[in-house]
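Format notes (please read before filing issues)

Several people have asked whether sequences and structure tokens are stored in separate files. They are not. Every record keeps both together, in the order shown below: the sequence lines, then the token lines. Line labels are part of the format and must not be stripped during preprocessing.
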Amino acid sequence: MATPVTAQNLPPGTHSVDDGAQQDAYRRQVIAAEGALERQDYKKAEETLKLLAAQKPKDGRVQYDLGFAEERNGEEAAAAQAYAASIADIPQFAEPLVALGLLDARAGRVAQAHKELADASNLTTGSAELHARALRALAHLDEQDDPEAAREELLAALKLSPETPDDVLMSADLAERAKDWSDAATAYQKALNLSPGDMDATAGLAHALQKEGKLAEADSVISAALKEHPEDVRLIAQAAEVYSAEGKAAAAIPLLEQLRSSDPKIAADPDTTQLLAQLYVVSGDNAKAEQLDEQLLAVRPNDPKLLDALGSTQVMQGKDAAAEATFEQAVGLRAAFGDDQAWAETEGHLAFAASKNNDPQTCLQALAARATVLPNSPTSLFLEATADDHLHKRREAIKAYQAFLAAAGGKFPDQEWQAKERMEMLEKER
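Then the structure lines:
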């Protein structure tokens, strides 16, 4: 009896008829699965591709197709495994690398996503469009922490595929982060030309123009848009900012009050609240400003600049003792200022509050601290003179009054008159 021919005893380089039939059947199933993918019948495609992957777990292209189907069926963990298997089988296959990078980016696995997308962008395989997609995704990942790298990645993507409205908006955002307000305004205007009426681009253009100092143009852009979309939160916020920069507190305040009353999240936003408090100060409503500053301090009790703002509203309401205590708390947080000049200015505010609160010793201490960073000013010299005068330091007071008069140059007539009067009286006391 003849020995049956099997796969185990076939001569090298030959295949059995059954083996060929299996390969044909496998190929037909692959074609059927790809057809299901084209029809967007992802459930059917996944069923078939899982069977194929079980037969040949190292078929990188089947694993990629399986991951694609699973991702569209909402099975992201399974899709990630399939993409990883595809990459392991075909390291130069760009498609699963990009797909896995995008999936990880959406899931917040930023470091992994960045590596996968960077690797994909450096492959020589894959279409120009796919490489551009990887580069754009990289730019989005780098937008916050490394805007310069994001700019380069976006420019590289634009060399591979046509510019899109989203690209224009991103370039505008990156220019804003670099504080290149002219480029930002140009990009936002281009975005509006591509997508007329886009609210993000409109608000961005107004903001960039405002930062450029083109307040009339910013006002024109934002006011026209606000007439068309009076309930749009982005426009209301930007309009308030523009009007504030123009000194139009009366126009800005109702907008911010409307924003805060319409949305609890905005009401809790510290930047919006602080802007409204500043506008209340400009409009002379210091009581409301103080109330908002105190609300903010309940959340950020060790914010020295916020304490400085609160102290200023207290001074303007005649709450001199409270203001002195507030400023003392602020200057005690020097490191938190992150800016020695701002700290020194607050020392000057403390000196003024202490002077009004009849505390000349604290006034002089604050002025001495201020002088370690900032040069004397007519105001600081006058405060020094009056503090020395209150402490009966006649010689020091005369010297400070003289320095004040030399610096004032006729710009402070009331204080100059007072200084001359006190000098005459002090001279008589000799």
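For reference, the curators noted about this record: The longest helix spans residues 17-38. The two ends are 141 Å apart (CA to CA).
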